Amino acid sequence: MTDHPARLKNLRLLPKVRDSWSYLYVDRCRIDQLHYAIALHVERGVIPVPVASLNLLLLGPGTSITHAAIRTLADNGCLVGWVGEAGVRFYAAGLGETRSSRHLLHQASLWADPKARLETVVRMYRLRFDAGEIPAHYSLRQLRGREGLRVRAAYERASRETGVPWHGRNYDARTHRMGDPVNRALSTANACLYGICHAAIVAAGYSPAIGFIHTGNMLSFVFDIADLYKTDLSIPVAFRVVADGVDRIEERTRALCRDAFYRSRLLERIVDDLAVVLDDSPQAANVLELVDAGFSPMWLWDPETEQVPAGVNYGDAEGQETGLGEASEFPD
Fold first, then answer.
1. How far apart are CA 27 and CA 42, in angstroms?
2. Domains and CATH numbers, the chain
3. What distance in Å separates the CA atoms of residue 317 and residue 301, rounded to the nearest whole number?
4. Diameter of the chain by CA atoms?
5. Tens of pLDDT along 11-44?
């Protein structure tokens, strides 16, 4: 079912991605509703999972889940993601806690402000270097140049340490099987990395499409975040796989990525880094207060006051609440 089934014996030991939420990966099991929770049916028996304390459930290969279980997860604001082996590929996701779009609005506000977007891009680049390594006066063009040198050095270092020849990155999805072994391994490792970054971004309430460095693709922000970890994870993994042989490259690369992601606590790192690069704190942008303020889960935008209550019939001269406004379809 999972690489570490012993953890399920005590749900307090579920791996924390960040203090505010946790995740659970399962595979090769059947999931249904159990009272106000869900139950995992595995060979050794039934394992109850109290979903009220769970924010992300990753469903790996061989899982089946009932409609009642999905409803219970949705009622408790738990995001469900359909992923590959050990979560290293991300295929689809349901909805998590949807009553607050705070993180997504904050991300969009940074993207829409040219000055804030540039500051975000600079934070992303600087996060890849040791403190003090990059002079404070560097322009964006200079940062891109230093990043290119850093990645080139990572390829050369991995080649030197493993003895695998390196002739440059050559990737074409249409001719993947025609590539040399190390390029095939790199493509597979990067795909795994994109999957886990995608899962973390969606689970944390951000948009994978609103990128800052990358743009024009529905996964632009995934590529932004994944680039923070390639030199530490996907590049060394790919060269190590090829150094051990050229048979079953894709299969062995996925397995090694799974282990490397687990050892490095990658999901936890991603969520922490998201908060850093997006400067995501209650003081970071006024837009955060617009969604969190008040008891209502929904507001109407107003250019003068920024927000007015939803669920109000504004055809009434006094604007009395009628319970029939826009928010009536989204009860608390």
1. 9
2. 5-93 (3.100.10.20), 102-277 (1.20.120.920), 294-329 (no CATH)
3. 19
4. 78
5. 333 334 444 345 788 899 999 999 889 999 998 8
